[in-house]
Amino acid sequence: MSSPYILHGFNPSPYSVKMRAILRYRRIPFVWDAIGNPRDVAVAANLPPVIPILRFPDGRLMNDSTPLAYALEREHPGQRSIIPDDPVHAYLSDLLEDFGDEWVTKMMFHYRWYYAADRAFAQTWIITSRNPVMAEAERRAGMQAFNDRQVGRMALVGCTEQNRPVIEESYRFVLDTLDRHVRKIPFLFGSRPSLADFGLFGQLQILSVDPTPMAEMRERAADVYCWLLRLDDASGVEGEWLDPEAPLPDTLTALLHHCGETYLPFLAANTRALQEGRDEVGLDIKDRPYAQAPFRYQGKCHDALRKKLAALPADVRRRLDPVLEQTGCLRYLA
Ligand SMILES: N[C@@H](CCC(=O)N[C@@H](CS)C(=O)NCC(=O)O)C(=O)O
Fold first, then answer.
1. Residue 52, domain member (yes or no)
2. Protein residue with least CA distance to atom 19, ligand 1
3. Are residues 313 and 170 in the same domain?
4. Which residue from 18, 50, 94 has its CB within 8 A of the most atoms of ligand 1, so it is best to mutate?
5. Which end of the chain is more exposed for a tag (fewer CB within 10 A), N or C?
6. How many domains does the chain have?
7. What angle is formed at CA 319 by the lines to CA 314 and CA 320, rounded to 5 degrees?
8. Mean pLDDT of the chain
9. pLDDT digits over 70-86, tens only?
10. Which pLDDT score, from 0 to 100, does residue 36 have?
11. Is the domain of 47 the same as that of 100?
């Protein structure tokens, strides 16, 4: 057997468990290397210092889960692809993946570092993932240092007291809507999972473990909780995409509509602030004030979504634009 892929990541990292679930669903043999500090692998390879990092069988190292998912599509074409065949659904899947990666992540970060019970649990989870057995003093110091670093970053990613109602309300909306969806259709775009499912999975999987959002999820959206357990290893799933001619399920349009009234206005305001060199993004989201410093990476995400839309042929746009228009997304993407 040729040497398999190696995924360097760890369990408390949403993007790591997202990539792991993709590899499992796609039946791509890999080794899950969750020993030590996986971020060091990125630093040593001169990559952006984020996890996970995937080592390809030829030795190449790469990180950033979205380009990684697409690189795997190129390496293994036609083998349980996670990109819907229909280009309209494929674009909507990209959009919802980005919503998961860049907006739902605010919920993940907020719950994890805001509530005392969650902070305490996250410290233990992260420190023991790096090194399960440590001298007590070293363990305590490591936990405190990690806590302080992450709490210090909250404002940077928009997890502030002012933004808390927007973030928590959005979490509840996503739970309620996804709960209704997975009772009718196994995954977002059919009975097989798409890139969008994995984007949401990464963040929600962590939210299903950290104590405060876990309790909320189990009580409010038990089907979402069970959906996450299924998607973690979906290597046995054999499914079909939704019929592209049929109207989109109302739960999917509700999620897109939510994206059009939360994440996308934020993304557009973020891009404007970056272009104008301002140090604050401020806007109203569902009649509530939201503010944070501009985020360069999310400027790139916005640009990528717009370029992808602009590159689609006219016959695809004729079917896609009405969906984006009706859900309030188009004006932020065109
Ligand atoms: N866009 C990247 C984001 C990866 C990311 O932000 N990973 C986090 C952990 S889940 C990280 O490594 N943060 C840097 C740090 O904590 O030092 C992806 O999709 O993979």
1. yes
2. 65
3. yes
4. 50
5. N
6. 2
7. 90
8. 97
9. 999 999 999 999 999 99
10. 87
11. no
89-116: buried (b, 16+ CB within 10 Å) or exposed (e) per residue? bbbbbbbbbbbbbbbbbbbbbbbbbbbe
Three-class SS of residue 81?
coil
Positive or negative CA dihedral for 228, 231, 237, 241?
positive
CA-nearest residue, atom 16 of ligand 1 = 50
Atom of ligand 1 nearest to the CA of 42: 12
Is residue 97 domain-shared with residue 24, that is, in the same domain?
Answer: no
Residue span of the structural domain in which 37 resides: 5-75
> Is residue 43 domain-shared with residue 102, that is, in the same domain?
no
314 C-alpha to ligand 1 centroid (Å): 36
Q: Per residue in 136-157, pLDDT tens?
A: 999 999 999 999 999 999 999 9
Identify the domain boundary among 52, 75, 98.
75
Sole residue written with tokens 């240092």: 145
Reported pTM = 0.97
List ligand 1's pocket residues with C-beta within 6 A. Answer: 13-15, 39, 49-51, 63-66, 101
Ligand 1 center to 215 CA (angstroms): 25
One domain for residues 55 and 181 = no
